[in-house]
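WARN retry 2 of 3 for item q-0093 after timeout on previous attempt; input resubmitted unchanged.
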Amino acid sequence: MMAKVTLRNLAAHKIRLMLTAVAVILGVAFVSGTLIFTDTMGRQFDDLFDRIGKGIAVDVRAKKVVEGADQDGMSAQPVPASVLERLKQVEGVRNPVGNITGYAAVTGRDGKLVSGQEGAPQLGVNWTGTGGYTMTTGRPPSGPGEVAVDDRTAEKGGLKVGDTVSVVTAGPPQRMRLSGTIDTGALMGATVTAFDTPTAQRLMLKPGFFTDIQMESSGVSEEELRDRVAAVLPGQLEAITGTQMRDEAQSDVAQIMNFFRTFLLVFALISIFVGAFIIVNTFSMLVAQRTRELALLRAIGAGRPQVTRAVLGEAVAVGFLGSTLGLGVGTGLAALLYSQMIGGDGGGGLVFTPMMFVWSYLVGIVVTVVAAYFPARRAAKIPPVAAMRDDVALPQRSLRVRVALGSLLTLVGAALIALGLTGDDTAGNPIVPVGVGAFAVLLGVAMLAPVISVPIVRVLGAPAARLMGAPGRLARQNALRNPRRTAATAAALMIGLALITTVNVLGASMRSSVDAQIDKQLGADYVVAPVAFGVTMGPDVLGRVQAVPGVTRVSAIYDGTANFAGKRGGYTVADAHALEKGARVKATSGTLDTGRDGMLVNEETARSQGWAVGSVVPVQFPDGATERLRITGIYAKSDLVGSRVIAEAAHRAHAARPTLSLVVVDAASTGPATKTALESALKDHPNVEVQDQAAIKDEARQEIDGLVSFLTALLIMSVIIAAVGVINTLALSVIERTREIGLLRAIGISRRQLRRMIRLESIVIALFGAVLGIAIGVSFGAAVQHALEGEGLTRLSIPYVTLAIYVVIAAVIGVLAALWPAWRAGRMDVLKAIATE
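OK item q-0093 returned
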């Protein structure tokens, strides 16, 4: 019997329950889309590595002594070509091939670098006829004047076989003939530029050396061949099996994809959390409207467990429907992301794993059932005698317990946030207490919202009550009538806007802090830098800049990674003038001159390591060699320079092919003419750009704005769900107040006034959620900025204009959310509405 009741109720409330399912659909779409996309990308990378490493039994490479060292300018010691000849004599070795990998790119017809997908690498390789690449058109490159590029790069740059193209590497730009195009498969949007082996060595490494050597096996196992090869290698090299090589590559990619998956799932869970408020609110209102019906069920013999199961059965149905539709939407999202990532031509299609289906349905159904559990419990407690009353209503619990629990959660959450932001980094991952604390605060404030809503709604509704007459007064009264419902509806919007506001406050603070740091620390007239991350700048740029009339001094800046006294750390290479004038570094003891074997450290590093001027520090470079560098000076903290500066001679001695990070330029006069002259001198170097302080600030702002926009876009899903919640609440509220609306119409209120009343009520609720969310977001942002003040986030900046726009958007959401409920209320038949029980 109860199953039939459940099905009948579902059929009777299709529109209401469908609106509830929207929250589930959007949340599950986020979850399933993330899982499908990351599983598909993981499969794509696995296929790629299997194809590229197919048949490789052993790989010879330099030993990794410094984790995370830059693979271009400061890679481990390259493999001498003489090792290749030695390996040919090892029994079991077949087809040994030396590989060169580095940075290389070509320019298109517009003179700009041809890049692949956003963030994808620009690879330079030597053409060996192996490696999983095949020629599409033309022929392989031969000699120092020929080059081949991948199909997508040729198409994007408008290049065809026989064209003369400009090739950019770590040295001067080269003019070469395009000999052919290459099919690289779905290489994740990367560009590939191929040379013959001697040319690749000359341009990207150095003659007589390889990045690594790979070989096949002629009848022996990988492990046995590895041991044979290892026996003839110099001490700085190592041999690994092909299986280990592929596993390492796949492991690195798996770590990146796991981080990306976790990152996206956090935002998906936020959307689901917001959706849970909508589900609770909807089922609470449905149960309240069906109080007499449920009491009748109790009167004819239905037990409490049966009534609870009936309501939860509806929740299961909503969760299942929402999960199914969410899977469809998530598949579309994954397909869109995948096509954007690989340029739309990746083979194999999307990957659907059993666990993706399990998690999608589990999340959708469990969240819905848990959210509906407490309304279901309240439904079961309706006494049978209530069926005989006309004015039956669900009893409301006192708010005392709720206020006490909400206050406790808010205080505990604030304490956890403070602990995570101010605690010692060695005590654990600070993100965990901050995340748990933020969740507790949001949940605590949501529990306190019914109490908070009364005074805030009175204030927010006052203009409407004063200016809009009776509809405005009724709208404010309706919003105040049921503080629990108003709070539950506004809580969803509150959470979304709280997180969006936090992101925007941090973004504004970052912009302000970066501007202040540049003004305070950057003293250079101009800076020459690579146009994008991953692009290489060769030392030949120095000569071009020095030859520009009006340039008085040019300083080279390098960076790298090494082990300092056994601990990995980054370093900068710069002369004393570049430090003092370009970065405004001040020595607190000693001198800024590093000489040929010196090192500078900032005060914090010196204090933590117990170093002083004259201390000798063993520094192990990525090539395995160790130098003993003497500390010649200690300087005040500089975010531009970092913690350590070493002598240029020490850096260059251990770099296979040094590449510049920055070039600091001083000029006799600073103005448009000087900048134009610098740009003209570097016009055939599309991989670099000339920047003054204003340009550096603009670039930093653009990067920060891009990050803020990306995070905001991910959080908008929760705001959409909140808007659906407002629609749902108003629609159910209109049904609940059918008789009241009929009486209002009977005493003379017009349809227009009625619709205005509902719109104003919606606006007041939306503004309450916005005000509460923005207040919480500003508090979160200020707390994070204060905690990170020592890490460079020195200024708190609140984007008042942006926050004001969010308030306006919240009001617009209120208007849009009220359109359908107001239209429906205006179409009610007066007599039928009055006769409604």
